[in-house]
Amino acid sequence: MNLFKSLMMLVILAFAISSQAQEIKPAVVKKGWSAMLGHVTNEGMLGYVQPIDAGPGEAWLDKTEVYGTGAFLSAGSEVYKKLCQSASFAGQQEVKVDLSQYNSSCPVQINTEGNALHAVWQSSDDTKFRVDFNLSGSQPLISEISVAKDENSPFEILAEKIHPDFQVTIGIRDSKYDVNWPWIFFDNPFSREFNTFPSVIDLKNVKVESSEGRVKITFSSITSGSFYGDLVCHIYSVVH
């Protein structure tokens, strides 16, 4: 694996978007950048950089060179300048929110405003809760989680700027351990070659469904390396 070549290709793709090349999709560059992040170790070192040689060769997680780090920084700079600041990446277009299976009589009140989705509900002691979601794609998914003591009290922020991150680590198993459960690791997986992929939320649509005193919000989609699916949030409320 030659990470240097991959980084240079990522720089070219990001620059192409800034030049308004319609055939280059921002999602492609976002997925490529996510893969690059997976080659950074827990200690912050960029691995899989081919050592100095006369031609292409193998590279490993514990191999790095200064030109690899330079290429990584160059790629990150292009992704930020040419892609993150573009309208298609920053999410200035509104994400479609499907409310066709949401009943407005549900005790969990849902409303939308631009790229914001708000959920408000209350507990049996009249304490009110609110979660504000940011659907722009350029900001953390959860803007604020707030609580109010009662109907007449103002909301107080409990937490803010929360972004879900489900990292996936892929490695190989040491077969010298004689066990009947091949999916269980008894050795140290970090002592062998592995890749860790951060999750990327690429919002294309959001679906809200209600059932009695609960709401299910499905955010599409989320990827971690080669794994992908939907991010689902369940909100429950006490029905009086």
Instruction: Work out the radius of gyration.
Output: 22 Å
- Report the portion of residues in β strands: 25-35%
Mean pLDDT across residues: 78
What is the N-to-C order of secondary-structure elements (H for helix, E for strand)? HHHHEEEEEEEEEEE
What is the number of strand segments? 11
Secondary-structure class: alpha+beta
**Low-confidence regions:** 87-92
CA(first)-CA(last) distance: 60 Å
Largest β-sheet summary: 5 strands, antiparallel
Strand order of the largest sheet: 2-3-4-5-6
Q: Can you tell me the overall shape?
A: elongated
The proportion of residues forming helix, as a percent range, comes to 10-25%
Question: In DSSP terms, counting alpha (H) and pi (I) runs of 4 or more, how many helices?
Answer: 4
The number of distinct structural domains comes to 2
Q: Main traits of this protein?
A:
elongated, 34% strand, 4 helices, 11 strands
Give me the secondary-structure topology.
Layout: H1 3-18, H2 26-37, H3 66-84, H4 87-90, E1 96-101, E2 109-113, E3 116-122, E4 128-134, E5 142-148, E6 156-162, E7 168-171, E8 194-197, E9 199-211, E10 214-224, E11 227-236
Parallel strand pairs: 1-9
Antiparallel strand pairs: 2-3, 3-4, 4-5, 5-6, 7-8, 9-10, 10-11
What this model shows, in words?
The chain is α+β, with helices and mostly antiparallel strands. The chain folds into two domains: 3-90; 96-166 and 197-236, no CATH class. It has four helices and eleven strands; from the N terminus they run ααααβββββββββββ. The longest helix has 19 residues, at 66-84. It is elongated, with a radius of gyration of 22 Å.
